[in-house]
Design a protein that fits this description.
The complex is a heterodimer of chains A (146) and B (68). In chain A, 77% of the residues lie in helices and 0% in strands. By secondary structure, chain A is mostly helical. The chains are: A mainly alpha (146), B mainly alpha (68). The interface between A and B is small, with 7 and 10 residues.
């Protein structure tokens, strides 16, 4: 028999704050001791604990919150995609040209960072396009007329 | 695109039924913040929620929500 913990949104938020502080302390300790494993273990444990707490507490997510999440995601995409796209161009152009400051070898990491940003932009745009295509079909946006 | 300005009488109907925002939220399975947002006109509910509200107060949707 499953026993559900009676937890409202306020209690969940308090628990989340405690878990975040705990994870932050673990990560700080891990950085201090130069241990990647400890930091990963701390973060994964924190995420699992919060997921479990959220599942058992049955936190209510209503339609207004879903709308807010949609708009926030839309805004985030609208900001992030152009920002990293422009950053990729700005980082790649100088390293391609014959600008003395960015002469080959000296600032190689800038080109690498530009490449990462460029691929990240492509990944974002592709993900957006695929999800748009799937959702458009799901919500009846196909071209098959009857 | 012209956005229609929707008004509602949710607060009036809630008062008629002598319900608090919390109680109405429980009955509609939404949060109290959503009730506050609908009453103040800052959030337009979805069609299913609007139907649910109308059914709860035993009136037509247009009795609660109207275009102004």
């Amino acid at each position: 028999m499953l026993h559900y913990v009676h937890m409202n949104r306020k209690k969940y938020n308090q628990l989340r704050a405690v878990v975040i502080l705990f994870v932050a302390a673990i990560v700080a300790l891990a950085v201090n001791r130069n241990s990647y494993l400890l930091s990963v273990a701390g973060i994964v444990t924190g995420m699992l604990f919060l997921a479990l707490a959220r599942f058992t507490a049955k936190i209510r997510v209503d339609e207004r919150e879903v709308t807010i999440r949609e708009k926030a995601a839309q805004f985030t995409y609208a900001v992030i995609a152009p920002t990293i796209g422009i950053s990729a161009v700005l980082l790649l152009i100088p390293s391609r040209g014959n600008i003395s400051v960015f002469s080959k070898g000296e600032f190689l990491y800038i080109e690498s960072l530009g490449m990462i940003f460029a691929y990240l932009t492509l990944f974002l745009i592709t993900t957006y396009a695929i999800s748009f295509f799937i959702l458009n079909r799901k919500y009846g946006g196909g071209s098959n007329e009857e | 695109m012209e956005v229609a300005v929707m008004k509602n009488k949710l607060k009036v109907y809630r008062a008629m039924k002598d319900l608090t925002q919390e109680q109405l939220a429980e009955k509609l399975d939404v949060t109290r913040q959503t009730i506050i947002a609908i009453e103040s006109g800052r959030y337009l509910p979805s069609l299913p929620l609007a139907f649910k509200i109308a059914k709860l107060f035993e009136v037509q949707i247009e009795d609660i929500f109207f275009n102004k």
